[in-house]
Design brief:
The structure holds two protein chains of two kinds. By secondary structure, chain A is α+β, with helices and mostly antiparallel strands. Chain A is built from one helix and four strands, in the order E-E-E-E-H. The relative contact order of chain A is 0.17. Classes of the chains: A alpha+beta, B alpha/beta.
């Protein structure tokens, strides 16, 4: 069943979409049917700029396993980067 | 006539809920008809390729198919619209019913339409189809494909956009109901399907439920791993036969 579950997090950064680089301040995260990926369910992340009226969306649809690996990679990269830079 | 039936497809304008101007994907079989019609209600991911394919499958079988874009009020492509609608907590049931009534108004203006219309939906669209069958008296048949949350046990889950427990509309459904479910589905799971069936039975409704072993949620979707060819082919055959029985 499709759900209406969405985890929203505020963030600061930029993302590159069809119109080039845009500032982003919001990510909506949900695990549900994808629009494009050949999966029954996917971990979907929509990066957007809420303050800009959500005019652009940079989206990814990931398998559950690859989403978990991405989480681990992000944490590992942050840990190594902090050690190297600070 | 050729063994294979031709069809014409187009994106048409409809007037939806509260007079909003929207759009729908329309497929009509080759020939003068007149043909019965099915309003197909898309699932939560929106007005996607699968929805268009399903509309064409209906037309290929000699039925008019029309699928309104329930997210047309949002900007962007259909996937962007779906993401925005989700972020806003989905669309309201009243709005869906209004948009489906807009599709019906479009159908009534088509000379190839025979005046008999049914409704079909997948997933959340199955839930919407159930509600539409209860609220729109002119519906002649409904096919609910694994519509979840038809029975809301916890009143706290009723929201301003979805204020009525869908099963409460069962008493108002006057047309035959075809239900298609996978026994490995989680929502609705077999116990929930049992509860839905018990309500329909107690109300004396005309219904036929088909439950498929080895199939879960969304098993008609040929572009996804959940696709189950044998069960899907049988489910589609039952769908076509059901609509022809009640809409021809």
């Amino acid at each position: 069943m499709c759900t209406y579950i969405v985890e929203t997090t505020k963030l600061m950064g930029a993302a590159k979409g069809p119109q080039g680089w845009v500032s982003i301040d919001t990510a909506n995260v949900y695990f549900d049917h994808p629009f494009h990926a050949p999966l029954d369910h996917s971990l979907n992340i929509d990066f957007m700029n809420q303050s800009d009226g959500l005019t652009q969306r940079i989206a990814v649809e990931l398998s559950a396993d690859s989403a978990m690996r991405l989480v681990e990679s992000i944490l590992a990269a942050l840990k190594q980067g902090e050690a190297a830079h600070f | 006539m050729s063994y294979y039936r031709g069809m014409t497809t187009q994106v048409v304008s409809i007037t939806g809920y509260q007079g909003d101007k929207g759009e729908a994907y329309y497929a009509r079989p080759e020939g003068n008809g007149p043909f019965g019609a099915v309003v197909l209600i898309h699932h939560m991911p929106g007005w996607d390729n699968w929805t268009m394919e399903a509309v064409r499958k209906l037309a290929h079988q000699g039925l008019i198919g029309i699928a309104p874009n329930l997210y047309f009020r949002e900007p962007g492509s259909p996937d962007d619209q779906a993401a925005k609608a989700r972020a806003d907590g989905g669309v309201s049931d009243d709005q869906v019913v209004g948009d489906v009534e807009g599709a019906l108004a479009f159908l009534r203006a088509q000379k190839e339409f025979n005046g008999k219309v049914g409704v079909m939906g997948f997933c959340s669209g199955g839930r919407h189809a159930f509600i539409c069958a209860g609220r729109i008296a002119s519906m002649k048949a409904i096919v609910d494909c694994w519509g979840g949350s038809l029975i809301v046990d916890d009143p706290a889950l009723l929201t301003p956009k979805r204020p009525i427990n869908p099963i409460d509309y069962a008493k108002d459904i006057q047309c035959p109901i075809l239900g298609i479910f996978g026994n490995e589905d989680k929502n609705p799971d077999p116990a929930q399907v049992d509860k839905i069936e018990a309500v329909l039975k107690s109300l004396g409704k005309t219904y036929s439920f088909h439950r498929y072993d080895g199939a879960g949620h969304g098993f008609f979707g040929s572009e996804r791993p959940a696709y189950r060819v044998e069960q899907a082919l049988d489910g589609w055959k039952k769908t076509y036969d059901f609509f022809h029985q009640h809409l021809d």
